[in-house]
Write a structure and sequence with these properties.
Strand content: 15-25%
CATH architecture: Alpha-Beta Barrel
Largest sheet: 8 strands, parallel, barrel
CATH class: Alpha Beta
CATH superfamily: Aldolase class I
Radius of gyration: 18 Å
Number of strands: 10
Distance between the termini: 26 Å
CATH topology: TIM Barrel
Length: 291
C-alpha cells in the first residue's frame, strides 16, 4: 500500500475519511480508473445516439449499470443524475462533477466558461442524506479562456472546501479559447498540470500532449504536476488494442497514475463495456502489460 499524501487543508478530524475515500477509488494502489460520464450535459446526445452506437447507450441508466458491474475506481457524473439513480446503484464510488456547459455555442463564437451548478455543501448534504459512497468532487477549468479567472477562483475554493470535508478533488483542466493556438501543445499541457498542483488538486484530468515522442512530452506534464497525479483523457472511441497499449505507455513510460475514460467505455453494449473496464483495470490496478 502506498503512502498517501494528506493535504494540509484536510483537518485532523477528517484525515481518516480522506484516506478511506482515497483508498476506495484507487483500490489501495495510488492509481485511478475514473469512469468519466459527464457528457450528457457536455456533449448533449451525440455521444449517446447515432451510427455505430448501440441503442441502449441512449438511456442514462446504461452508465450506472456499467459503473455498478464494471471494474472501475470511481464514477464521475453530475449530482442530479446521482440523485435520480443513486438509490438503485448504492455501491458505486461517486465523484460529483460540480460544473458543466453544453457545446452548442462553438468556441469560435465565445470563449468557453463552465459555471458551477452545485456546491461542496450540496454534495456533503446529499452524502449525509443518502448514505451513498460519494468520495470526491470534480470541476473543469478552461485555461486561456477570457473567463479563466472566474473558473480558477471557483476551482480553488472547491478544492479547499472539499478537503475540509475529507473529499478527494479532481480537476478537468484544458487549455482552450481564442488565445490558445494549440490545445494539446506539450508546454501548454505541462502548464495546465502545474496549475492543477497550485490549486491543490489530488488528481487532474488532462489531454495527452501531441508531437514526436509522446511519452517524453507527457513526462514534462507529470513532472510539472508535482504531487498532483495526472489522468489522461480517453477522448473519442478508438480501436481497443491501440487504446490499451497507449494507456500502458502513459502510465509506465509517461508517469501518469491512471486515466479518465468515458466514450471508450460507455459507447458499447453493456456486457462488452463491463469486459472492457476489466481490461483497463488490469493495466491500471494490476500492472498487467497489454499484449
Amino acid at each position: 500500500m502506498e503512502h498517501i499524501l494528506i493535504p494540509a487543508d484536510v483537518p485532523t478530524s477528517c484525515e481518516q475519511l480522506f484516506i478511506e475515500n482515497y483508498n476506495r477509488i484507487t483500490k489501495n494502489t495510488g492509481r485511478l480508473l475514473l469512469f468519466a460520464a459527464d457528457q450528457k450535459i457536455e456533449h448533449l446526445n451525440k455521444d449517446f445516439y447515432g451510427k455505430n452506437i448501440p441503442r441502449e447507450v441512449n438511456n442514462p441508466e446504461h452508465l450506472f449499470k456499467i459503473a455498478a458491474e464494471g471494474e472501475i475506481g470511481a464514477f464521475a457524473t453530475q449530482l442530479g443524475l446521482v440523485s435520480r439513480y443513486g438509490k438503485k446503484y448504492s455501491d458505486i464510488n461517486y465523484i460529483i462533477k460540480l460544473n458543466a456547459k453544453t457545446d452548442i455555442i462553438p468556441k469560435k463564437k465565445k470563449d468557453p466558461i463552465s459555471e458551477q451548478l452545485w456546491h461542496v455543501y450540496d454534495v456533503v448534504e446529499l452524502k449525509e442524506m443518502s448514505g451513498l459512497p460519494i468520495c470526491g468532487v470534480g470541476y473543469t477549468i478552461y485555461l486561456g479562456s477570457q473567463y479563466e479567472s472566474h473558473m480558477l477562483e471557483q476551482a480553488a475554493q472547491i478544492v479547499y472546501e472539499a478537503h475540509t470535508y475529507g473529499l478527494i478533488t479532481i480537476l478537468w483542466i484544458y487549455p482552450r479559447g481564442a488565445s490558445v493556438k494549440k490545445e494539446k501543445d506539450a508546454q501548454m499541457i505541462a502548464g495546465a498540470a502545474g496549475v492543477a498542483n497550485c490549486l491543490g488538486a489530488d488528481f487532474a484530468k488532462i489531454y495527452p500532449p501531441e508531437g514526436k515522442n509522446k511519452t517524453e512530452l507527457l513526462k514534462l506534464a507529470t513532472e510539472a504536476a508535482g504531487n498532483t497525479k495526472l489522468l489522461c483523457a480517453g477522448g473519442p472511441k478508438k480501436e481497443d488494442t491501440l487504446f490499451l497499449q497507449a494507456l500502458y505507455n502513459q502510465i509506465h513510460l509517461g508517469g501518469t497514475f491512471g486515466a479518465a475514460i468515458g466514450r471508450n467505455i460507455f459507447q458499447r453494449p453493456l456486457q462488452e463495456a463491463i469486459a472492457f473496464t476489466k481490461n483497463l483495470s488490469a493495466i491500471i490496478y494490476d500492472n498487467q502489460q497489454h499484449n
